[in-house]
Every structure is written in C-alpha cells, then in structure tokens.
Specification:
Layout (H helix, E strand, L loop, with lengths): L6 E6 L14 E2 L2 E2 H11 L5 E5 L3 H9 L18 H16 L4 E4 L9 H14 L3 E7 L9 E4 L2 E4 L5 H4 L9 E11 H7 L8 E5 L10 H15 L6
Parallel strand pairs: 1-4, 1-5, 6-10
Antiparallel strand pairs: 2-3, 5-9, 6-9, 7-8
C-alpha cells in the first residue's frame, strides 16, 4: 500500500491479435511476451495485487506458472473493437469480487515489455505527486516528426499541417510532440468507473524514453524489441 492507497495492477491479455498470432504469449528471446510484464510487476513494491485479465486459459496458465493469481476468466471486452480501458475496468470489477475494493489501478500492457522497474516506480510516484485523477504514459517523437507529415490525394503529396509551419522552421525549432504508449497507465478507480477511460478531464502524463515505450503490434516491432533488449537491457543501460 502506497500513501494509504490500495493499488491493483491489471495486465490485459486477450488471446487474439490481427497482426501477430498469439501476440501476448509469442516468444521474445527466451520468454513469452507477457512474462516480461509479469516479472517487473511482481518486483514493484507499490503494487498490492496483480491480475491478468484474459479469456484464454492458456494465457492464465502462464500467469499462474509465474506466480500471479488468476481466479477468473474475462467475461467481456475481449473483441477487436472494445477499447482496452473497458477491459481493465471490467477486470477491476471482477477483482473487487475476489479481493475487495482498490483505490488505484495501474494498467500494464503486455505488448510493452521493456519498461523497467525504476520507470514504473517513478511513474507511480509522479501520479501521486501530480495529484491528477489519471495518468497516461507518453514518449517524445524523434526522427519521425509528425510536423512533416504528408498524405497522398489524387496522385499528389499534401502536407497534413495546412498552416505550413514545417516550411518556416527547422525540425529542431518546431514544438515538441508526444505519442501515447500503452506502457503504464494509472487512474483512481472511481475516476475510471466514472469516465470509463484513463483519458479523464485534465489527465496527467509521464514521459518515457523511446526504448521503454516500444509497443509491439507487428513482427517488425518484435524484431526491434529484441534488438533493444539485447543492447540496452542486458547491458544494464536501462534498469
């Protein structure tokens, strides 16, 4: 319990995925993808209970093998169209039936395997210090700067930024832009129940580095994660 608040960590892990079959349990180096999230969550001293939310008995079996309780199958919100916020909310409600009430919920997506324990701890501390009702993790865009985005229409390239800001400034002079990552999302339980989303009014934010923010959706992402893990995690560049 941190600052008198009971904290639940939810790891949403449905079985299906359009772009990578069995994504949440596909091997990343020598371990199932979800195991990286299980391992780091278990080390976090601020988390009181960890649950894996899945409709797959196979995924829950892996979680149980790694020392995480799996008392229930997900009853709802496991199709391709339901936002993960609602899956986490459903997991909160099911968890309350087994373990009683929680004050804070932390959503840890298993397809973000490189977040460190230090970063999770810092994110939780930032949430409490900011006194926001919810918090989303972000990373700063690097070489792929959205200010320079174009789209194709009738065979021609057109700038997405119609104000032409990118024409007047160097890339380093443009305002910084940030992208959300599913790595570490936090909310007061009552706030999540009220808005059914971590994007509550005036939500807080926590900035991750690009490596820890990697979100695996494609086989190319998986290859990149392997490179990052070998060269940064195993060499203790990120702890």
């Amino acid at each position: 319990m941190y600052k008198g608040k009971k904290i639940l960590a939810v790891i949403p892990a449905r079985s299906d995925s359009k772009r990578i079959k069995n994504k949440n349990i596909i091997k990343l180096l020598n371990k199932p993808l979800i195991q990286y999230t299980l391992d780091v969550a278990k080390k976090c001293k601020y988390i009181d209970k960890i649950v894996v939310s899945s409709e797959s008995k196979k995924i829950l079996k892996i979680a149980k093998k790694n020392g995480v309780d799996t008392p229930f199958l997900r009853k709802e919100a496991f199709d391709d169209f339901t936002p993960v916020d609602k899956a986490t909310l459903a997991a909160v409600k099911q968890s309350e039936e087994y373990y009683g009430n929680f004050d804070i919920v932390i959503q840890l997506m298993p397809n973000c395997p490189i977040r460190s324990l230090k970063t999770i701890n810092s994110s939780i501390q930032n949430f409490f210090m900011s006194k926001k009702k919810s918090q989303i993790s972000f990373f700063e865009y690097n070489y792929a700067n959205p200010w320079w985005s174009h789209f194709i229409k009738k065979g021609n390239m057109h700038p997405l930024n119609t104000k032409g800001l990118f024409k007047r400034k160097r890339s380093q002079d443009l305002p910084k832009l940030y992208c959300p990552t599913g790595s570490i999302w936090i909310s007061n339980v009552n706030t999540l129940k009220k808005y059914k989303s971590f994007y509550s009014p005036s939500f807080g934010f926590f900035i991750l580095n690009f490596i820890e923010a990697i979100d695996i959706d494609t086989h190319e992402d998986l290859k990149l994660a392997k490179i990052f893990y070998k060269h940064f995690i195993k060499k203790n560049t990120i702890k």
